[in-house]
Amino acid sequence: MASKIVMNIGEALAGEGNEIAHIDLLIGDKTGPVGTAFATALANQSEGHTNLLAVLTPNLIAKPATVMITKVTIKGMKQALQMFGPAQYAVAKAVADCVGDNTIPADQADDLVIVCGVFIHPQAENNAKIREYNYEATKLAIQRAMKSSPTPAEITSQKDSVQHPFAG
Which homologous superfamily is 24-143 in? Predict the structure, then answer.
């Protein structure tokens, strides 16, 4: 069955400290613009920005297939292992759980792809927190994307009263 989702966009922040997780993601039909972005991300790698598939364990990718994009230049094996370990598992588990709870319809899991931007602070130390926070942020970003949340009305009603935590 062909998906009707061309491109939905989600964002979420979870956690605190250097292990804070910030996820930006696109979800859409693999034959559309998100599919093109997905393929481009896997085909175009660069030093310090190694894009990878979200897997629960080697040889068991998440469905919808999800490519993780590094939002911070990886400058060593410690950061690489954090991306290829706790963050990779967390993103894959959140995707799988969203299919399991029907946030993402299971009958569309093979028709959709996800492009997921993942932030890991260069001074992050606690892998359990990296896993926990990236799971929470990814799941929330997917939920928001699938509901097209926030709505324009929600944004305009809050635009003058909210504060960005890093805006200073």
Answer: Formaldehyde-activating enzyme (3.30.230.60)
